[in-house]
């Protein structure tokens, strides 16, 4: 069987290294993005720059989109000169952007009318995971399309899981972002409480980390909390976008998320107070402000 | 240096195996509790049953208390016929109960007037940790008293950390319980959201556990969530008591705990709705009720 | 000046009596709705039934829409055979539905391209207010259009206020629904707390109502709380829709609404638990459930 | 029947004008407080200054306490040289301070042992209400004691209600403070939302005030919101104390107060951020901070 020709739309912080990993794995990749220097970088890595979506997707077997948010995905896929206008029936469209589950479902429905198969396949693991090809990939759509895309996914990540029908990948990503935000906020509340109570913070976090209170957040973000180092990392602006997706998706299925609702408000407040460009561990700054301990 | 004689007050689910671990480590232990069968168990393990607090503590070098809550600790230590009424100056009193930081500070102050040294040393790790001697022990009080108690603590636990002055151990325990409750609730919200959205739950939890959303709670309680198995474990009634301590202690030091406040309410509601005797992972049942998905 | 010819789209619980009040005030009204018996009722009141949106709006000077939610308004106004497709330049379109502020702004923008002026004019006061012509009307749009519609508004309501540009009427309605939901929930929490504490509830509510805790909610809904009479009234399903608008609108402008967020979750939970068809004072039932006091 | 001799303990902002209203009504009042100038003021009004609690209460038929918080009340009533040590059996002790319901119940129990009757009778209405004698008085205790104190209460307030057994007055006061805090916060959220959305705020508040969103808080505090005038009034520090009582009392009876819990946190945060000395309408400042709109 021939290696599929890949069109890649969206070569940002995540998309560029991901496309390059495909190239390294032997896939012919034709890529498009709005930033010229990213096209040059793609060419340097062995890919083929395309001047438009149309040029990128024409003749492709698989189209991957990796874009900032729902409006960009809808424009690129559904637009007059977009992906669906130029792909042949039988093409597989894999949207790896993080968008609302209902957006994924709507794309799949629109694509079905043109004989195009769709998977939603958002990722977690951040820029480092993208560069090293160790992302977690959560996939929604038909099982046979998931199987077909297996080799491609394995060039990008180490944990690749089929989660259910169209939108299921996005739903799992949303749940992931919910749990991460709550865990960060929980640690931030604990840190401020411990400091205000005059406790030896590093010692206390060591105990917490070793027991039932332990978490990957506590382990990976401990340094950020202790050093007040909030260089991103995953920016609060992006987590704010994701909490919007969580809130709407939970509302749509009638799932109560009392902590999720509160955290969504706290993330929004962090952004409103000017911390949108910082790493999400900077939720600590919001707790400090509420506690009168702002630096 | 001679092995210190230990008086142990409180031989419940935690206290009994802890006292037995001291006996195994070579300490002479005289114990008191209100349940006769626990006194017999102590004798069978090689300890000496005492008919009263007075009888237990007379002649002891170290007194350990392991009691349900603040009122019991205050009664046993400060009561007319209590620990302080019968201990000699120079005795070390180690309160391993989980109580409010201010209760620990008050005990230390009362004891200082009689020349008795005090450590607060609450534990985490549950009944299994107590039996196996692998508890985490969070200690508040003077460094030299902590050092003096080191061998004894190491007979009971594997992580033993000095956290700061009187009450600091309780503060860290409170922070621990805050983070644990929030993490359980976060997982419960994710579970109900994922199920209502029609996602493959075991697959989804596998992805979450492998990334930034991973936590010890998710790992250890995944089975409880998936099987709706809520046999305790750590009962909601006890976590409710602890959330009372967290709420008051955070308020006392002026630390904002927005998630902590919401979780305290949800734990209280779980108890009000009859789930007090279940494992704290049963917070899932509250989320299901709020989502109209109660079984 | 001639009395303007009015097209009225949407003759539901609110729309029917409102259209009839216009007829009584001397306006020629041609109305359309999907329910035949409502068209007969309109005819009986002196109006002219129309078989389609197109038939209703052709030749009208003013078009009023009073529809359930955003999708219906968008379909009726922007649809291929909708209001804008059939109205002449210079027509005034007044949308009295409760929709998102951004929907109102989008309608105004679409209409401007066709020379049609738009006002958003949601109301409060319920069915009784609609029947008696004593609604509060919150209006967004150009001041001159507001002035032009003044006589018509005064046939429908007693408080008619220009609140700002397009969408401002919806924004004020959203704020209204936020405050109402929070006030109902506050009273519900007080009621359950007072009852569980064994207090004489009618006496207590009398004191509360007479002081700074007094509110229109407490006054008008006291009977519902005391008698557990939750016949609508304003249904929780509708308040749920409105809380969705509030949540999104506050997020869009970066306004923190901590209580609004919690109440939105509680309203959603009430609906998920089967209370969607009850009056919004039935938020009391949710508090009772959380308190283990459900009947 | 002879006019009862009154001992009044606590002559602060509220206590002084209340005691003077009793004097005006013909009661002989012997008063004690720790501030000499307040004793002089009492003498100038026709009362009798007392140098100690003992001197004030000796020979009194009725003892009124009006003190800042639970510790002061406990010290004054239960202390070695306190009220109960010096009152004769049959005396009526009326505690008009705002304290926890359980404190009132404990006082009543202690007093019963000495044949002293007790009423808890906290007030609302503020300094103005105290001066003008138009307070609302919420009373807990035996009906016959309430009846006996009726004339005295009517010299102080216009709404005087018997709410139930010992502590019931405090419970109603707690519910009052819960509803007031939530209403203030609701208005504050609406104000910031409306302003950020670019709406005409005075017009909007006029509409809200006229409908189901109307409340005494909106009416009386509208000026504070519009002018950002936060001169007290009722200070956030005091409302913080009261929210502590609400939180504990609701927890004690197992009543869920989801909004109450969130508001308690927001009041605490306002205090932690330095607004404790401002009027409680300054909760608006907290919403502004969370919205990035702080001045």
What would you say this structure looks like, in words?
4 copies of one chain form a homotetramer. With 295 residues, chain A is α/β, with parallel strands linked by helices. Chain A folds into 2 domains: 161 residues, 3-Layer(aba) Sandwich (Rossmann fold); 119 residues, N-(1-d-carboxylethyl)-l-norvaline Dehydrogenase, domain 2, CATH 1.10.1040.10. Chain A contains 15 helices and 9 strands. A 6-stranded parallel sheet of chain A has the order 3-2-1-4-5-6, sandwiched between helices. In chain A, strands 7-8-9 form a 3-stranded mixed sheet. In chain A, helix 13 runs antiparallel to helix 14. The longest helix of chain A is centred in the middle third of the chain and has 29 residues. Chain A starts with 5 loop residues before the first strand and ends in a 5-residue tail after the last helix. The model of chain A has no long low-confidence stretch (mean pLDDT 96). The interface between A and B is large, with 68 and 69 residues.
